[in-house]
Amino acid sequence: QLLVHVLCLSIVCFYVQLCETHTCVSSLQSDYHFEYTECDVLGSRWRVAVPNKADICTGLPDPVKGTQCTFSCNEGEYLDMQSQQCQKCAAGTYSLGTSVAFDEWDSLPTGFVTHGAITNEGNDQTDCSNSTWTPKGDYIASNTDECTATLSYAVNLKQPGSLSFEYFYPDTSIYFEFFVQNDQCQSTDSNSRWMRISESSWSKYTVELNKGNNVLYWRTIAYSLQGSAVKPVLLRNIQISGVAYTSECFHCKPGTHSANPGSARCTPCPADTYSNKGATTCHECEEDKYAVVGSASCKPRPACTSSDYFYTHTPCDSEGKTQLMYKWIEPKICSETVEGALKLPASGEKQTCPPCNPGFFVSNSSTCEPCPSGSFSNGTVCTECPAGTEPVVGFEYKWWNKMPANMKSTVYNQVFSDSNRRTAWEVAGEYIYTTPGDQDTDYLMLTLSVPGYRLPQSMVKDAERSELSRITFVFETICTADCKLYFLAGYNQWNNDVVERWNGRNHKQSYSYLIQSNSTISFTWTFKRTDGTRNYSADAAKIYSIVITNAIGGVATKCRRCALTSVKAGSACVLCPPGHYMVNGTGACQKCPPNTFIRTDQPVGEAACIRCGPNTTTNKAYTACLSDCILDLRTSKGALLHYDFSPLANVTSVHSSPRFTSKGLRYFHRFNLGLCGTEGRMPASCVDNVTESGREVKGYVCQSTVVPSDIRSQSLVSSQPFLIGDSLIEHFKISHLACAFDVSRSSDATQSCQQGRSATVRMRCDPTVTAKNRIMLPSNCSEGTCDGCTFHFLWQSQHACPLCTKNHYREIVSACIQGIQRTTYVWQQPVQCYGGQPLPAQKVSACVTLDFWLKFGVSTGAVAAVLLISLICYFWKKTRKLQYKYSRLMMTSGGRECELPTADSCAIMEGEDAEDDLMDLTKKSFFTKIKSFSRERTSDGFDSVPLKSSSSLEMSTSLILHG
């Protein structure tokens, strides 16, 4: 026995010594935990003990054979590593089996990593270390600055699994993407998962995951382009399946509970109850306190005010009366016993029922029923459409005594979407309005759904003017704070896009939206008061009327004249041939004038034929105007110019001057332009490559906002596309600046541009510009527009010049060199043409040089001079003869001046042959005459004439007289 005591004492001392030196043989279970090794090729693994602190103990349990790698536990169970058996979770906890879930965000859960980084285009001085995802209790929120914030989580799946999470993405100023990579940083999907905008509700996203390592990334970048506050992206309820097992159960978060063991999830506490973390049951609040669904504590009930109740009307009774009813907003959170609290007003006041909406009639039970097919009504009785007419179907709501069957009202809360409250919009006779809410952050939604659209038989839908339907509503917002009213359109209530939004107080006004696709069948009006607490619950939105045309299942409010198969009674309505309008009152089809198109919404009367603008032609369907960019224009001076803009027909992009945010981030606007349109094709398009919806608009001119980015290896991200011009008004006319114009207009109207947007493209001829994309914006309006509705572009190109003709060049003739003369053609300066007729080749022709003509002229002049001198001498000689004869005549007459000797023969006037014969008797040589001529004149100035004998004189005289 002593030996036994000594042995026990020795063992105790030994253990004390081992514990003092931290080398325990048997470690406490709290000092370590169990983990499995990696699976081998056979699918086997080992369970090993891992110390919680590296230097506490070394005497750990030996490794033992583990469960197979394919082993997993069911929902509500966890794997007990000590026994390697599945155990049920205790009450107040939950387990997803092969999944893990993260729904508590008081702090960043283990395994999640978040960090901020600067973008490529940002300022290097910017500090992004605090631009991370921030836990907010029920969710985690992204950054709101211009840094890149990334949230990541790495998980190793033992089998193929999936990931699901809920997100709230209300602001287009943030680019939000999600993607998955493997452990080699390789994307498992070729496309980036851009998230869809969710203006008023939480959206759920699910993606399949591969077996092995998966790294999940949520990444955001905020671009505060308009200078307004940016709303962060919110994440919650992240769940990953495929992890094979979980070794622990998770406690229910405050506001939820699980009453039974083996729970797969925790249930939110109902209204007016609360719970703590890990609760198995919810506790009732005291009578003077309240709690909303999923609350962790109770709050004192405030005094009831007029914002805690709403009024509505009961259906009409058999007497055609309705009762005005007042009701508390459910769930009721106010107290009527608190000092200063209001009581609920008395209900039951009877009022006359308003008439039924157009297309309905009052039945025997005093309810409004739709008119049968082929009839119409103004809200009283149904009337058959006359012969030769067709009903105009749709929905027109302008009396609100009862919520229409195809409309519903819901309330959405950012934290819990399963709120018990369903009162958001209530009917009030002449309008439908938003009731006071629990929180100013609630989204009060009114949704209208239609099954689709069908055009009447007398109308045809075409690609260029694709108006399928139109919705028009009259509304008003009464707000004292920064309330917002959104109008959304899409496939359903949760899959839609924001069409327009209004901020603050808005007076009664009308808005119209063009519907172009049969996939747009759901319309939602969402009203939100503020981002704060319950301080502006009296702010409200009112809708007075809603009209939607061509809706399938709609009712007829009127009948319209239609074209008939024949003039016989009972003929069916038919569609007029393309390019024909319907003659008003007869139903006959008449052809429109040339180069006109038909108004598809009202093809009745000659006014339905709209003439195409200058230099445009109608399409084959006579529904729009097109241009092939080949045209002839006449200037103000009458000159005809030929243009061919076909080389510029491809879609061309132009960027506005860069703009910068407060942190130096660069962004700009990109415009896509298409000058020419062909049958069935709109040339230009702008897309949204940021969100999952990938919205795209098509037309002649469109705009999008572009930001340089390194997100997912994309150099540019494009967002916020809208259409500027989708139809041609006029195409190219000559102005005093010799520019051509391309004017297009968009049918999309906004609250700022009631008549839609329009674009004017001015083409300026510049033969030196070879580039096809030199487009400039106005210097005084760097965004391309000064009012946001009318856009201007200046396009400079050699292809904007008229085609060259013979009027654009002149000829230059060179001198004659060595018998050769050249004719050269050059352009008129400055050059104002391109292409067309080229310059003619140089012409070469034979010619005579100037030296030849000079010699010929000198020779000819010399000959002419000799001839002239000869003639002078000849006539001088003749003159001397006449003078001589006259002198002799005077001498023979003596002193009888008035008498003449009797002529016995005719005088010889011309030729004088007789005298010549006489003179020849005394003729002298030429040189002798010259010598004697010098002696013929005496010193007194008279000529000396030698006298002959009388016989000779008489004969001479006689000759003279006869001559």
UniProtKB/TrEMBL annotation:
Q: Where is the secretion signal located?
A: 1-21
**UniProt superkingdom:** Eukaryota
Pfam families, from UniProt?
ELAPOR1_C, GBD_ELAPOR1, GBD_ELAPOR1-like_3rd, MRH_ELAPOR1_9th, TNFR_ELAPOR1_6th
What broad class describes the main subcellular location of this protein?
membrane
> Where does the MRH domain start and stop, copy by copy?
627-803
- Does the UniProt entry include the keyword Signal? yes
InterPro entries per the UniProt record, alphabetical: Elapor1-like_3rd, Elapor1/2, Elapor1/2_C, Elapor1/2_GBD, Elapor1/2_MRH, Elapor1/2_TNFR-like, Growth_fac_rcpt_cys_sf, Man6P_isomerase_rcpt-bd_dom_sf
Q: Where found in the cell?
A: Cell membrane
Q: How does it sit in the membrane?
A: Single-pass type I membrane protein
* Keyword set, alphabetical order: Cell membrane, Disulfide bond, Glycoprotein, Membrane, Signal, Transmembrane, Transmembrane helix
Task: List all membrane-crossing ranges.
Answer: 852-876
Q: Alphabetically, which GO biological process terms does the record hold?
A: autophagosome assembly; positive regulation of vacuole organization
Q: Which PROSITE patterns match?
A: MRH
Q: Please tell me whether the keyword tRNA-binding is annotated for this protein.
A: no
Recorded GO CC terms: extracellular exosome; late endosome; lysosome; plasma membrane; trans-Golgi network
UniProt-listed SUPFAM superfamilies: Growth factor receptor domain, Mannose 6-phosphate receptor domain
Q: Which family does it belong to?
A: Belongs to the ELAPOR family.
Kindly provide the name given to this protein in its UniProt entry. KIAA1324 ortholog
Q: Which gene encodes it?
A: ELAPOR1
